[in-house]
Design a protein that fits this description.
alpha+beta, single chain, 10 strands
């Protein structure tokens, strides 16, 4: 065991003392800790932003698929399952919703919800909330599916409610506990994306 002040490393006076090594390791630990905190925050922001963009893209794709197939299409979100998918109404065989492309899962630490936000962005929803629940069939005659949310487009690329009327209440909101992001669709089919901080006083929405 080297004595205090003894050089280690095999180079005599050009080596390091045990005390010097301890100091260097301590400094590296402090620097690493300072770097990790903003890196973790940046990754959390990146994940929720990526999920928002994926939702916006899927909404746009559903709108195009409805018009291209002269049918209805929807984005089906499982709120508790933390995933969503594109579905198109198949007219043949009695009719059924058919999933295209499989499920898309939200990122780690991201969930459906809008946290403590109380109001929707201006000129979007009348009241802040997820899109209406998905239904088993094509319209209001089908039972609502618990813990789901759907934005449905008709063959003219217009978002509609369960009765088939144009609707501007379609929205999906996701958050990571620090930020909330969302995608809204107006009654004309205009899709917009938003974000807001959940921390601090009087958080406000920013159009993305």
């Amino acid at each position: 065991m080297p004595m205090r002040g003894t050089r280690i490393g095999g180079w005599g006076e050009q080596g390091w003392t045990l005390l010097e090594l301890i100091v260097v390791v301590a400094i590296l630990g402090v620097v690493s800790a300072l770097a990790i905190t903003p890196t973790v925050g940046a990754m959390r922001a990146l994940r929720v932003g990526t999920d928002r963009r994926a939702l916006v893209t899927t909404v746009a794709l559903a709108r195009m698929r409805a018009a291209a197939g002269f049918t209805r299409a929807r984005v089906y979100a499982e709120l508790d399952g933390r995933r969503f998918r594109l579905q198109v109404w198949r007219k043949t065989g009695g009719g059924a919703w058919v999933t295209e492309g499989g499920d898309v899962f939200l990122s780690t630490s991201v969930n459906f919800g809008f946290g403590a936000m109380a109001e929707a962005p201006a000129n979007t929803q009348a009241a802040l909330g997820q899109a209406p629940a998905c239904r088993v069939g094509l319209n209001a005659a089908g039972a609502a599916i618990a813990n789901t949310a759907c934005i449905v487009f008709n063959s003219r690329s217009i978002p509609i409610d369960a009765a088939g009327a144009p609707s501007g209440e379609g929205a999906f909101w996701v958050n990571n506990g620090v930020e909330v992001h969302g995608a809204t669709v107006s009654a004309t089919g205009l899709a917009q994306s938003w974000s807001a901080p959940l921390l601090g006083a009087n958080p406000t929405w920013t159009k993305r």
